[in-house]
Records
---
Amino acid sequence: MNFSEEFLQALSSARHVAVLTGAGISAESGVATFRDQDGLWQKFNPAELASMEGFMSNPALVWEWYQHRRGIIGGVEPNEGHKALAAMEQQFEKFTLITQNVDRLHQRAGSSAALELHGNLVENYCMDCRAVYHFADEKAELRENPRCRDCSGLVRPAVVWFGEMLPVETLRAAQIAAQDCQVFLSIGTSAEVMPAAGLPMIARENFAYVVEINPQPTVISGRVHSVIREPAGIALPRLLRELDQFRKSRV
Ligand code: BV8
Ligand code: ZN
């Protein structure tokens, strides 16, 4: 499947390209998504594990679940999709990477900046004094009893749970990028979780060319300009190659 001339034209002439990624871009690294058949929410109850209520009612269980996910993330590598996005930064005057993922695989692939709308799995902080704890050097202590060394408050993962505000400046920067960009790529997300999922439509309302890269249809498929029904690890490296050829054919 080739990319449409319209898409390549929009991309090659774009000053600012913005990208929103979801769990799907890490799927080819072997990280389970949330809502696919074998997704995390098929096995675990999000309300119980990815919410403040869940954490407060059973901090040890939630802690163990995040340890389990950290273990998985620690054992995987960024894939060709992550790497293509890192390379894409150099192709445009302005490139904004926005991610819902907490696995930091974009950064490990070489992306210089990522707006982490839902926080990250690496950091943790005390709920009382907000002291920050890094998973790697606190492994033993954090495994048994996530308590703060300074004030013995509960230490929690630095992810955004359901019902929690997203980091205000990060969300604002993502919304501004969606308004300002000429091309918006929605990659590997079911586009079900707000307010992140509203970003492609903000871009669309601001006359950007919006593209979805996802093997499956999503709730926004009917409202984007182009859909690429391929895994990100295949589509993105190919997009880089075709963009390069397209630009050369225009000189
Ligand atoms: C907030 C924790 C308010 C971190 C997560 C009713 C209607 C509308 C909204 C709501 C509602 N009830 C509640 C809400 C708000 C809620 C929400 O949107 N709920 C939805 C589910 C209905 N949102 C919130 O609670 C947010 N906060 O709104 O606060 C507020 C306001 C003021 C004051 C106080 C509070 C907080 C949202 C963040 C929640 N945290 N996780 C963690 O543990 O990871 S959400 C969870 O879903 C993950 O963070 C994930 O990032 C996010 C989105 O999922 P996706 O990334 O899209 O993953 P998914 O599995 O769904 O899809 C993967 C896709 O990849 C699929 O389409 C698949 O086809 C595709 N794919 C697979 N393989 C590939 C691929 N694509 C490409 N290549 C491949 N190879
Ligand atoms: Zn503390």
Note: Strands lie at 16-21, 94-99, 115-116, 119-126, 132-134, 155-159, 183-187, 209-213, 226-228.
---
Amino acid sequence: MPTKNTSIHGEWSSRLAFILAAAGSAVGLGNIWKFPYMAGDNGGGAFVLIYLICIVLLGLPIMMAEVMLGRRGRQSPINTMKTLCEQENTSHAWRLLGWGGVVAGVLILSYYSVIAGWSLSYVLESSSGTFKSITETQAGKLFADLIASPLTLIFWHTLFMVMTIFVVARGVSNGLETAVKYLMPSLAVLILVLIGYSLSQGSFMLGVEFMFTPDFSKINEQVLLDAMGQAFFSLSLGMGAIMIYGSYLSQHASIARTSFAVAFADTSIAILAGLAIFPIVFAYQLEAGQGPGLIFNTLPLAFGQMPGGVFFGTLFFVLLVFAAWTSSISLIEPAVAWLVERRGLTRTKASVVCGVFTWLVGLGTVFSFNIWQSYTLFGKTVFDMLDFLTSNIMLPLGGLFIAIFVGWSMRESSVKDEIAIQNPTLYSLWRVLVRYVTPVAVFIIFLHVIGLI
Ligand code: TRP
């Protein structure tokens, strides 16, 4: 058996630290900003159902596989894959998986930072009382004005990138654990406050119905692909983020239990966010399928009406920024760790290089909401393209390859040794999922989308 690899970047102080970091990566804009508008765009219930199925059948097994690879390789995803290929005697082409992840991470962060910038700007709006008794039209105009101004967007995008570089430069676990430990539960509590408000508005059941009554006639390629992509995006899977966090995980922690905890927390927050937002959408007769502006057009209405709205609204957007922050770190970490390992850069230099590059790419997204709005390809703006390419194609493809590598290419003895699932039934179940169910499902969805079946 090959000797165990060790990480040059350090190790988590405990299993809880890993859960917190992985949950911090998973819970972010994907849960609160993206999940509701994706559900809204795709007709609600059917999307939510497929999303949940994808979390259980694809997300969980792949998350376990990804953590397992990280812990076994203990380096950046590129070098982890390289080392594992050598140890397992398989094709070096698997290294591409690591590369794909670095590229996907940078592309995702480029637009993620712009949207996190919207949240930053809403911290300011909320704290200065802009939401007080705001009307639907005024809320709509506030958001439209924000995205129409490239300079304002660039300002907030820059601020968020600087925040990200700052933390990444200091090393992964400094401060991150504490931030996640206190801020994530607070975010959950604030979503509950919003749900409380939604409950008082009389349209709560309309929201519940929208989210949980699947209309099967609405299921088409788009819904399938979006739901699968959203499951990968929300759990931070398929690009090495979870792999690199796994590389800092101690040898004794249970991968199965840890992954379950992370997936459960992430999914709960997304569902709660939906339950907070849709009743408001229906109470004000807004459009559920209005796209990326959904929460920015609806939440100010709720904060503008509820008692203590300035306080709750400001706190909510502050926490949303923190959630985005702990996610953005994991998006850029694979690229940074690779530059440190391969090019021998200091962490600070590597973070600045990656950050500046990502910032530049992000300008494409900034302009796609205003001056480049009419530049589209297949009806998609730069932002739409980046989001589609990463969430719907690159992440599921990454997940597919991870499953094939773990299920078919690695020796079973290595897999068994590293994943260390004690219960034999559970192990067999996971193995069947990774070997057959996951790859076949992703493959079929892809084939279906390109119209082959
Ligand atoms: N999961 C995060 C969210 O929901 C986004 C994210 C962080 C991510 N790291 C990732 C998505 C890695 C895909 C891959 O907001």
Note: The radius of gyration is 21 Å.
---
Amino acid sequence: MDSKAGKYKVKDLGLAAEGRKKIEWAESRMPVMMALREKYSKTKPLKGYKIAGCLHVTKETAVLVETLKSAGAQVSWSGCNPLSTQDEIAAALAKNGIEIYAWHGQNVKEFYWSIEQTLSMKPNLTLDDGADLIFTVHNKYPKLVNNIIGGTEETTTGVHRLRAMSAAKKLLYPVIAVNDAETKWDFDNVYGTGQSSIDGILRATSVLLAGKNFVVAGYGHCGKGVAMRAAGLGANVIVTEVKPTAALKATLEGHVVMTMDEAAKIGDIFITATGVKDIITEKHFKVMKDGAIVCNTGHYDCEININHLAALSKGKRTVRPNNEEYTLKNGHKVYLLAQGRLVNLAAAEGHPSEVMDMSFANQFMSQIRLVNYHTKGIKVEPQVLDIPVEQDQEIGGIKLRTMGYKIDKLTKEQEVYMNDYSAGT
Ligand code: 9W4
């Protein structure tokens, strides 16, 4: 038992030194978080507040947790996905005195047990990714709401569910929708998913992208990011879409647009980013070139119909980590990456730290915002709250500054001119 360690259940405390090095690496790539840590460790606005957090235990999350602690909060943590916890990070946090209940490969019972442990501190604030912690409070421990001043939620799915709960008048305390900050979703989806999906494909295959027909299904923000980076590496990008305006944007970015039925015949690499099931099915696998590579970066793992692929195949073997070779009855080989799960998370490390820097700065600032409402006696009704534009601009501004960029400022005269409606053209 380590004397500094608090209450915890992790895989192996002996992994702490390895985890600490990874956290230090993330710190060196997260200048906004480090600037906020520096600033708020002096004033400690979260002193006296208890925060229960339920968010992927990664090196970037560790930077968030330790920044909350530096700002004075007492923190208790669990992971929000049984497969996303990095045991060495959990160990490093436990060793640094953070209360944490998280290990890789938890079963459902262990997962909810961990969440419930974090609630035993009777938190004043919740911090979620996917809203499982908020749901556990509402469904199982509603009395805890008396101590809770508010919460924050990281993801699209979580925010969506909370809005439904709020509309049904079932939400018992205010929750800030961190996801909807521009400095969160736009950068996560385009630049985070864009780079990390390519990273996952390369780690799982090490193929050359230049000159390849690279098929991107879905031209939302994620698809756009992946297409942009694949094109940058010299691939011929083909986009498939159902929405005319999205397809139009793809063509104006210089990509070729066609149906999946056509793309299936000529693609070398396929990636789905649609959020819809059955994008690549039996009829597509049947016409694919020998050696085609197929993967998914959309939220759900049903975009590629793996049952169809298995049914068409006479054999299957793992050729590299996260890369399974299916031998079809027609003799062709098709390579499925990360079992159709998100290739950027299963085969790579998710969003780079520089991107998480802004997402987590929004989490941190939103927790402080809730505390400020509380200390100033501002009563906020239970509802899903947006991030104010000023917070987005403040975080974007800090990021730019830490990158060494300066930008211009509107003069008073320019502001007057912009808002002047008396003069015509
Ligand atoms: N990670 C995750 C989920 C499932 C999963 C091989 C098959 C999301 C956001 C952030 O969901 C996350 N399944 C796996 S690995 C794996 C990983 N496998 C393994 O066999 C199943 C997840 C947020 N984030 C970043 O993106 C970067 N830092 C962060 O904190 C993290 C993880």
Note: The radius of gyration is 23 Å.
